[in-house]
Write a structure and sequence with these properties.
- By secondary structure, the protein is an alpha/beta fold.
- Helices cover 28% and strands 21% of the residues.
- The protein has helices at 18-24, 42-52, 98-111, 139-151, 174-183, 186-189, and strands spanning 6-9, 31-35, 58-63, 84-91, 122-129, 156-163, 194-198.
- Helix 1 (18-24) packs parallel to helix 2 and helix 3 packs parallel to helix 4.
């Protein structure tokens, strides 16, 4: 089992028994993808992430609309070999609190990045949204991203905005969202190390 190098974790009911089994087999993947639906993923980020430790190089975190920040995601505090971190957030019109939950998740994750993560070179923030929401406060994310940039002078940030075609909204509002977001990130943008990807179709992201 130590030969497993890529793990995608999408928990299902009863799946909590898989993590102890993986750990007992010495599983230490270099690439790990975690999808956060409800409560089951805490077995991954409470047990698997710390045990994998420095072996993990590429981590992708998908945050769906039902993420509960009170679950206490412990982040990547022990994954010092991490080179690439991807955070995918969904802003969905089904919940008015989604943006706040997503931002809290982002803040929790960024707080876990310290100077010990010397290998970290790429941080990808992907935002998928399907309705106009222009009242999001980006100042907290801006401060934390700028702090990461100070301790990681070679890191490159990529921000991807990928609108979905929600019924009744169209996509004409997306430029307003992007303007507000960029205006809310003055510290990190001033560093000159941010790439902005604006995609209208998932296929446009292939190979990025």
């Amino acid at each position: 089992m130590s030969g497993v190098k890529n793990v995608v974790w999408y928990p299902v009911i009863g799946g909590e028994e898989i993590i102890p089994w993986l750990l007992s087999c010495g599983c230490q993947p270099r690439e790990l993808t975690i999808v956060f639906p409800q409560r089951y993923s805490h077995f991954v980020y409470q047990e698997l992430l710390p045990k994998v430790g420095d072996a993990l190089e590429d981590l992708t975190l998908h945050l769906p609309r039902d993420y509960n920040p009170l679950l206490g995601f412990s982040g990547i505090r022990t994954n010092f070999g991490l080179k690439t971190l991807r955070i995918h957030m969904l802003q969905d019109s089904s919940s008015l609190d989604t943006s706040h939950s997503a931002l809290e998740f982002l803040h929790q994750t960024l707080r876990g990045i310290g100077p010990e993560h010397e290998s970290l070179r790429f941080l990808w923030l992907s935002i998928t949204l399907d309705h106009p929401r222009l009242d999001i406060d980006w100042s907290g994310a801006d401060t934390l991203l700028a702090a990461v940039a100070v301790t990681h002078p070679n890191i490159v940030f990529t921000i991807c905005v990928a609108p979905r075609f929600a019924q009744g909204f169209g996509i004409g509002w997306v430029d307003g969202f992007v303007r507000v977001m960029l205006d809310g990130l003055p510290q990190v943008l001033s560093l000159g190390r941010v790439a902005l990807v604006w995609a209208f179709n998932p296929s446009e992201l292939a190979g990025i």
